[in-house]
């Protein structure tokens, strides 16, 4: 049997049904509703229970088809044109398509559509009647803002697309969909705006997506890794988000985005360092407030990465650099602490990470308790037991709070990982170690690219024009152009009227 | 578009040159200069040295612009036959390796003096070279961009130190003017060349430029920044430490930072912090020297991966860095570098450009 004949449908309804049953292993949630329309034409509606919208199917398909009198409308027509007639005269369902091959038919049934087969015809009608379980639109869990919109993506890609379409009514908005995963056949779509997004970027993204060969891509996080430029890096090379407004904004800036069915996280690419200190809220607020908040986030990044290391270096190697009064109080508080500062720091930072991880795993109400109880009790007990110094606890606490101040969860994780290496470097070489670590991180970042865009731009390579929306968030009336670093097709955001 | 993105812009070349020149020289050279001159007369030496450097930089830039897309070995082969070109390139490789070793060793020496007393010199130099090797293994445009990242920080720190030391300058230290005999000025000029060695890296970086014809002006701007900075630093150093004082400390610029008091005493021992930040620019110099050495060698051998070159060159540079027994020998190494630089860095480009002009040689634009 050749593959072609394999995928062709039979004219006999009974044979087709048998084939569907055997292919799917005759599961008990497979619904095959057989009925007859006048004059004696046998039909079958095939779908899977639970994945369809029952009411819709009943009202717009079953009722209509069953009531339809074929002999009246065109007595002479043959069986083949029955489907065509049904389509044009009987059905009130919107999303109807003709299927001619067997494999797409099976795929349609499996993805929650329903299929109408008719005896004597080697074709079938497919209805987009997907229903099934889906969550309502809720506020994004991982990225809350004060003034932003409250809707977040859900697991359903259709809903997610709608949330974006609802915001951008540009006819050039493109959702290029394709299925991914040998077995899971998840729908995925690349979103961009034709004429605005750099076309090379879209081509390259699609090329990379084609290279994914896996049975199931397991959501957007895994696809993100498949299409990343580099895997030897702790930094995220694309930005994940639950917020439709974030994707909308990214599209308008000349970035492209990706949605995958089954996950509430979309991906934005390409990204550079600056995107991780920006929050959508920056644009919902006064520019001064936004700028100051961005400065705060940059400080938070540096505090997370270097604060514990600086403490280690100063206490262990360069006591002379601490102002004398402070030096005395630090020395006083470290009285009786048995470990060198680096061990002390690693111990406390390790405990903190443990608490954080435990807080995520536990059910929500308990999760918060563990933060408070664990943090306070362990910190207090460790100090009074003389294992760590109070100053160390302060340092650890500031580091922790800083790391949570970053808008991107993935980015803050990478920063926290790097922090441990910087701490080790400081433990071995003091300030010299810290500066070498800083240099090494810089080397790494300068060599990184996200979809061909240098990760450190617009700092290096220097694009001064883009600095208007970097740390500074210039007043909105000044942001007339899109960021240059993305090479958008249409550079101008605002045209003078 | 991809290749366009990975080309160097004019400002990057300006920063590259500036970043290459700010290195160990600016920390140590004021001592040598103060030895031979009165007051701040050595500024004349610095400016003269800068003029000399400007001529050579201009020649290098012109040469590169004349033979676009060709590396040093390729165009010197066209100008002065293969054997001489080969000697030039090998000498350049060795010079740059020696320079990288010098920087690594100097870092180790200064670190021991200002940061920690117990850590062995070898370990400090080794870690530094490891970071340099890591940078060299990355892309070459990244090395240029690192300059753009670090130089502003370093220059700001220097300006910060200068600003806070302005109130402790003794005007009397700066006098008298113009009393140093011209022989001493010339001697000082030779010493100031220590602050300018390494500009030859332009040879390998101009070819990365988007518009090589803009290279001469870009290089001149870089040099201008440096000269102004050097002169101001020298004046402030002499103003604070006096001529006598400057002669007797190893690293006058760092001692200057020691004298600085920040109102409120938030920091103490500013010189350690200053030096730590200064490591960034020394790192840049060493990296570019190493990269140029690697590139020169690669242009001769014509094949091989970066990792293989690093595998062979790094140990050699490390061992060379350990060669000087003490600080005195390190200074001798510095003088040796200046001497080589006089031939290789200063004379060679001028001669090459002269011959190329006389013979009317030009690079094939399509080649």
TrEMBL record, chain A:
InterPro entries assigned: Spore_Ger (IPR004995), UPF0353/GerABKA_families (IPR050768)
Region (Disordered): 129-151
Protein's GO biological process: spore germination
GO cellular component: membrane
Annotated keywords: Membrane, Transmembrane, Transmembrane helix
Residues passing through the membrane, by range: 295-314, 381-406, 418-441
Family to which the UniProt record says this protein belongs: Belongs to the GerABKA family.
Name used for this protein in its record: Spore germination protein
Species, as recorded: Paenibacillus abyssi
UniProtKB/TrEMBL annotation, chain B:
Record GO biological process: spore germination
Transmembrane spans: 12-33, 39-63, 84-103, 123-143, 150-169, 189-208, 220-241, 273-295, 307-324, 336-358
Record's keyword terms, sorted: Germination, Membrane, Transmembrane, Transmembrane helix, Transport
Key word Manganese present: no
Topology within the bilayer: Multi-pass membrane protein
Protein location: Membrane
Alphabetical list of InterPro entries matching this protein: Spore_GerAB
Gene3D superfamilies documented for this protein: Amino acid/polyamine transporter I (1.20.1740.10)
Organism superkingdom: Bacteria
Main localization, broad class: membrane
Protein name: Germination protein GerLB
Species of origin: Paenibacillus abyssi
The gene coding this protein: gerLB
């Amino acid at each position: 049997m050749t593959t072609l004949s394999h995928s062709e449908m039979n004219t006999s309804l009974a044979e087709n049904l048998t084939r569907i049953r055997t292919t799917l292993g005759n599961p008990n949630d497979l619904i095959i509703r057989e009925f007859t329309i006048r004059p004696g034409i046998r039909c079958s509606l095939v779908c899977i229970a639970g994945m369809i919208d029952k009411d819709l199917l009943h009202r717009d398909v079953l009722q209509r088809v069953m009531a339809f009198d074929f002999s009246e409308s065109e007595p002479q027509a043959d069986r083949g044109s029955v489907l065509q007639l049904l389509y044009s005269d009987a059905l009130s369902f919107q999303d109807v398509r003709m299927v001619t091959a067997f494999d797409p038919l099976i795929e349609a049934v499996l993805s929650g559509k329903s299929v109408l087969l008719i005896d004597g015809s080697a074709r079938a009608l497919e209805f987009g009647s997907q229903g099934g379980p889906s969550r309502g639109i809720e506020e994004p869990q991982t990225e809350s803002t004060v003034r932003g919109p409250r809707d977040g993506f859900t697991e359903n890609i259709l809903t997610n697309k709608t949330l974006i379409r609802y915001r951008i009514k540009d006819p050039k908005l493109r959702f290029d969909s394709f299925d991914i995963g040998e077995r899971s056949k998840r729908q995925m779509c690349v979103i961009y705006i034709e004429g605005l997004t750099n076309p090379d970027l879209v081509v390259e993204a699609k090329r990379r997506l084609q290279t994914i060969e896996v049975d199931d891509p397991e959501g957007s996080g895994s696809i993100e890794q498949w299409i990343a430029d580099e895997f030897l890096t702790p930094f995220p090379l694309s930005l994940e988000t639950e917020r439709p407004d974030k994707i909308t904004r990214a599209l308008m800036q000349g970035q492209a985005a990706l949605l995958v069915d089954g996950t509430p996280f979309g991906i934005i690419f390409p990204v550079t360092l600056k995107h991780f200190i920006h929050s959508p809220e920056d644009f919902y607020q006064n520019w001064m407030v936004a700028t100051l908040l961005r400065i705060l986030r940059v400080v938070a990044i540096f505090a997370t990465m270097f604060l514990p290391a600086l403490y280690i270096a100063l206490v262990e190697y360069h006591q002379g650099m601490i102002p004398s009064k402070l030096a005395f109080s630090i020395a006083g508080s470290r009285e009786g602490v048995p470990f060198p500062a680096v061990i002390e720091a690693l111990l406390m930072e390790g405990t903190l990470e443990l608490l954080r991880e435990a807080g995520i795993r536990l059910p929500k109400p308990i999760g918060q308790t563990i933060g408070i109880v664990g943090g306070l009790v362990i910190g207090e007990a460790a100090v009074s037991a003389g294992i760590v110094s109070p100053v160390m606890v302060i340092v650890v606490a500031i580091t922790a709070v800083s790391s949570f101040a970053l808008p991107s969860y993935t980015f803050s994780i990478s920063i926290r990982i790097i922090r441990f290496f910087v701490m080790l470097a400081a433990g071995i070489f003091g300030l010299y170690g810290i500066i070498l670590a800083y240099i090494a991180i810089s080397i790494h970042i300068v060599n990184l690219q996200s979809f061909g865009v240098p990760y450190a731009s617009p700092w290096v390579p220097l694009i001064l024009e883009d600095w208007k929306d970097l740390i500074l968030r210039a007043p909105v009336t000044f942001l007339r152009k899109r960021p240059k670093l993305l090479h958008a097709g249409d550079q101008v955001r605002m045209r003078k009227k | 578009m991809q290749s366009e993105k990975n080309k160097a812009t004019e400002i990057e070349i300006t920063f590259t040159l500036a970043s290459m020149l700010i290195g160990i020289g600016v920390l140590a050279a004021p001592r040598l200069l103060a030895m031979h001159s009165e007051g701040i007369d050595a500024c004349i030496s610095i400016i003269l040295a800068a003029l000399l450097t400007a001529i050579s930089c201009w020649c290098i830039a012109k040469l590169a612009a004349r033979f676009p897309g060709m590396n040093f070995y390729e165009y010197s082969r066209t100008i002065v036959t293969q054997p001489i070109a080969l000697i030039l390139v090998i000498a350049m490789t060795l010079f740059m390796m020696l320079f990288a070793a010098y920087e690594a060793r100097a870092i180790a020496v200064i670190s021991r003096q200002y940061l920690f007393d117990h850590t062995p010199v070898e370990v400090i130099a080794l870690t530094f070279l490891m970071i340099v090797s890591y940078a060299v293994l990355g892309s070459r445009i990244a090395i240029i961009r690192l300059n753009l990242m670090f130089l502003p920080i370093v220059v700001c720190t220097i300006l910060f130190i200068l600003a806070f030391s302005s109130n402790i300058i003794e005007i009397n230290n700066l006098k008298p003017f113009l009393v140093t005999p011209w022989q001493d000025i010339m001697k000082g000029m030779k010493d100031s060349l220590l602050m300018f060695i390494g500009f030859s890296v332009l040879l390998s970086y101009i070819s990365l430029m988007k518009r090589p014809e803009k290279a001469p002006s870009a290089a001149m701007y870089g040099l201008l920044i440096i000269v102004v900075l050097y002169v101001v630093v020298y004046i402030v150093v002499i103003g604070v430490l006096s001529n006598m004082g400057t002669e007797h400390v190893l690293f006058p610029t760092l001692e200057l930072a020691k004298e600085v008091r920040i109102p409120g005493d938030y920091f103490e021992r500013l010189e350690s912090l200053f030096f730590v930040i200064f490591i960034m620019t020394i790192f840049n110099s060493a990296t570019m020297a190493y990269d140029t050495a690697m590139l020169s060698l690669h242009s001769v051998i014509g094949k091989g991966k970066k990792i293989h070159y690093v595998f062979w060159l790094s140990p050699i540079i490390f061992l060379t860095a350990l060669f000087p027994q003490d600080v005195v020998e390190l200074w001798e190494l510095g003088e040796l570098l200046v001497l080589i630089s006089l031939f290789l860095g200063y004379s060679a480009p001028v001669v090459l450009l002269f011959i190329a002009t006389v013979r009317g040689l030009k690079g094939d634009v399509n080649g």
